[in-house]
C-alpha cells in the first residue's frame, strides 16, 4: 500500500487532510534520524503503525463539533496531531512529560499551519488538578500509555461528565479491562464500546471507549507515581 492508499482507506479523510497526514509522517521520520521520536524507522511502516493506527481511534460519535481533545502522553504526536489534522474545528491539547518531543511537535504544527493545537509540558497528575484542564475535555486519548488501571486514573479526571476516554490498546486489552473495574467504579466511569481491529501489517488493536458518568472524586489522581506503584484493581 502506498501512503496515499493508507490514508484514503478511511472514507472520512479529504485529499487536503491526507496530504497533511503524509507530510506529518515525513517530518516525524526525518526528525527521527537525529532524535528518538519513535522506534519505527521506515517511512512506510510509520504510515501504518503511526498514522493509520492513530486514525483508527476516530469515530464521529465521540468527537463532537467544536469540542476539545486531550492527547495524554502524546509522544511524537500520535494520535493527537493526526486528530488535529483530521478535525480542524476541534481544539487539541498535546500533553507529555518529555519536553524535547513537544518541541518537535510545536515546530511541526507551525510548518503544517495547524491553528488548533496547544502543547503542554506536564505530568498528568500535576495538570489534572488545574482547573483549566480538569473536567474540561470532550474526549481524552492515550495510545500505548501504561496499563489501563494506571492510565484510567490519569486520564479520566480530564474528561467532562458525559465525555469519553479512548484508550488505544494492543493484544491483552480485555485482560486490562478486567483489571480496571475498581478504578472505573471509583471514577464513575463505564465502558461504552470496545472496537477491535487489525492493522494492514497484521497487528491486533483494541480501542476502549470509556464514558465518564459523574464528577471525578477530588482525591484522584493521586500524587505523582502513586498510580504506577499502587494501581487500583
Automatic annotation (TrEMBL):
Concerning HAMAP family, the annotation shows: 16SrRNA_methyltr_G
Described function? Specifically methylates the N7 position of a guanine in 16S rRNA.
What does the similarity note say?
Answer: Belongs to the methyltransferase superfamily. RNA methyltransferase RsmG family.
The protein's organism comes out as Dialister pneumosintes
Q: Which InterPro entries match?
A: rRNA_ssu_MeTfrase_G (IPR003682), SAM-dependent_MTases_sf (IPR029063)
Q: Which keywords, in A-to-Z order, does the entry hold?
A: Cytoplasm, Methyltransferase, rRNA processing, S-adenosyl-L-methionine, Transferase
Q: What class of enzyme is it?
A: transferase
Tell me the organism's taxonomic lineage: Bacteria, Bacillati, Bacillota, Negativicutes, Veillonellales
Ranges that cross the membrane: none
* GO terms of molecular function: rRNA (guanine-N7-)-methyltransferase activity
Q: Where in the cell is it found?
A: Cytoplasm
Q: What's the protein here called? A: Ribosomal RNA small subunit methyltransferase G
